[in-house]
Design brief:
By secondary structure, this protein is α/β, with parallel strands linked by helices. It is 28% helix and 27% strand. A hairpin with a 4-residue loop joins β4 and β5. This is DJ-1/PfpI domain-containing protein.
């Protein structure tokens, strides 16, 4: 009998509510199909609810994340992600993963988290249009493209880029 071998482990930072459903489940599916374990973390454990009713479960509080336990961090977008814009733990984790040269990724408006963490200076990045000024203020070279990969930083601008974003995160783990 063959057993699945988990090759990598990623943590998805997801708002407790009003995260963007497809920005969560499309990249998660891409990663899991390639034997990457995805752990969902938030400001609470238990049930989380997306903007359109998709439900998932957080099993880890963001303050309990040890970057040494994961190969990548992914910030999920949607209006709910505003809870992380100035969250000490969310910003510190972005810095920790970035400094360890691990994939540090955000989709949609969650790119503001990376900008606020100060890790986008001189980096090509994209974000949902509402976050453009925050990225520029954070020193990013805003492109407006659907997907940007600059070193270990991966950013996407919204739900239409979710699958390609997942593939980019997966490729960065190879």
């Amino acid at each position: 009998m063959l057993t699945e071998i988990i090759m990598n482990k990623a943590v998805f930072i997801t708002a407790p509510e009003v995260f963007r459903d497809e920005e969560y489940y499309k990249p998660k599916k891409v990663l899991e199909e390639a034997y990457t374990e995805v752990i969902t973390a938030s400001v609470k454990t238990g049930k989380l609810r997306g903007r359109f009713g998709f439900k998932t479960t957080s099993t880890l509080l963001i303050q309990d994340i040890n970057p040494n336990d994961f190969d990548a961090i992914v910030y999920i977008g949607g209006n709910g992600s505003i809870v992380f814009f100035d969250n000490h733990y969310a910003l510190k984790l972005a810095n920790d993963f970035f400094k360890q040269r691990k994939p540090t990724a955000s989709i949609c408006i969650a790119g503001v988290i990376l900008a606020n963490a100060g890790i986008l200076k001189g980096t090509k990045a994209t974000v949902f249009i509402d976050g453009k000024e925050a990225l520029i203020k954070g020193g990013a070279v805003y492109t407006g493209n659907p997907l940007e990969i600059d070193g270990n930083i991966i950013t996407a601008n919204g739900p239409d880029a979710a699958e390609d974003f997942g593939k980019a995160v997966l490729k960065s783990l190879e």
